[in-house]
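Handout, section 3.2

Students often ask what a structure token actually looks like in practice. Rather than define it abstractly, here is a full record for Pentacotripeptide-repeat region of PRORP domain-containing protein. The first block is the sequence as you would receive it.
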Amino acid sequence: MSATLRRLILLSSVKHPPNLPPPYLSSAASRLSLSFSSVSSSSPSIPPEPQTSPSRIRTRTPLETQFETWIQNLKPGFTHSDVVAALRAQSDPDLALDIFRWTAQQRGYKHNHEAYHAMIKQAIAGKRNKFVETLIDEVVAGACDMSVPLYNSIVRFCCGRKFLFNRAFDVYNKMLRSDSSKPDLETYTMLLSSLLKRFNKLNVCYVYLHAVRSLTKQMKSSGVIPDTFVLNMIIKAYAKCLEVDEAIRVFREMALYGSEPNAYTYGYLTKGLCEKGRVEQGLGFYKEMRSKGMVPSGSCYMVLICSLAMERRLSEAVEVVYEMLANSLSPDMLTYNTVLAELCREGRGNEALELLEEWKKRDPVMGERNYRTLMDEVYFLNKG
């Protein structure tokens, strides 16, 4: 037997542990592992996939969560009433605007006047004035059908802002040209009230009086019946511009519209007539007002008192002063001084002193300082 054969027999007879491969297999496995390690080391390394940290995951804001909730509630095929209900249910105007814009982008849907009205009211309540102006531009451009409540809300918003004053009349003119959304009493009330706020100086009054006349004619021609409040504003506009005959004409027409004059009506007429120099006629309206149990305003009292005093009708002026004090109203320093000065110029200085003492007792607003000022004025005029 050769030496090589004997070595093979001896190797096969040796026992190996069960988990270990034979020597030739182990050496082959070792060579195979070395070859794989060398290949892996020569090939470029692949970086591990980055794992997102839980702290970096973006959480949704409450506004986004609410928006998604409302969007899910609006089922496919939602109607205008569904959108209006969703808009009115929002307390956040920004969320309402998001819903408004999202629904406008859906296929087969277009906002109507109710949706725009609800959105404009939400934006005004939330003081999103820029949003409101954008929505107004869309409505005026024809984004939806016209309606009187929608356009009145736009007029009200524009009348409340000085730089949008002309815009309010643009909307009004568009309503005039409409067939189904003509201006109503509320429209004219807002426009007249906005005009009256600009009647602060006489020369400015004449500028806006033309607009008041135009509105009045258009209101009558359209069949809108004015109420006492609107008629009082028209009377006030004429009286401010000293167009007292026009003011009296409107006063006479009040019965035709079923309106009753009130204290403001008589007050505007009394002040306008006195400032025009027609004191007797102004006093007549004052007495008519008092006979109906109405109490004039403080400014009406003071204009009448000063006018009577300047006309040297001092007894009537003093009587009106007592009536004013009896109604818990206090004349100002100019009114007191006018009456007392005219009494002194007529040589009735002692009477002026007695009246001043009596008025001080009845007028808690006069005060010690004003009393001494008036007393010095009376003494000075008596010496002269």
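Discussion prompt for tutorial groups: Residues 14 and 358 are 144 Å apart (CA to CA). How would you have guessed this from the sequence alone?
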